[in-house]
Amino acid sequence: MQLPPEVVAMSECCKCGAVAETYGLEEYLERVERRWPRRNGPSVRDIERGIAKRVLRDELADAGSIRVDGAVTALVEVLTGDQDGASAFEWEQARHDLRHHGVDPDTVIGNLPSYRTVHRHLTECCGQEAPAPTEITADRGVVAAEDRIKKLVTRLEHVTDKTLTELTTAGHIPEPGAVSVTVQAECGVCGEDHAVETVICGVCPTQTSTTPPTQPRQ
């Protein structure tokens, strides 16, 4: 649905308020507005993605999509942008996916508040002060890296599943089962392949046994 001009004009705040009124997100927005200034509250990016997720879910459901959750997860990552950014192909693929589900991409993308819009809403419309920056620890870096990889894996699973579905519909292949993607990396200690989550944590599985530690490879 397109944001009615009268709703945007009558909204007591910015585009975020208009979106909340149009999609019934007032309660969600009020909740994250209260939590944002807190030390462990959601980030501006978290709120941006939270709004996008709810808008896309509503649009896809209204269009009659029966695979809402998987489609929303992948679309949010592309349309709000992750730390690695989305390629031109991924962006066009997202627009194609929206059209495929019966949603006008220009309208729904135009309805999504940007990072700057969300930040302006929190600081100007709500009068909130940004939370004090916290020390970036090694643990937080590991969590962020693992989260980034998980998001990329989710996106790859969605694109793969969609491609296989299209091939099945066209009669080129039998209908496949569930799609899953596993990422492995070579451990710098033992030289064996392990799940990337294990490698990121910096703990070699072979060192948990009773055998003497393996010397790092030169």
UniProtKB/TrEMBL annotation:
Tell me the protein's name. Uncharacterized protein
Which species is this record about? Halapricum salinum
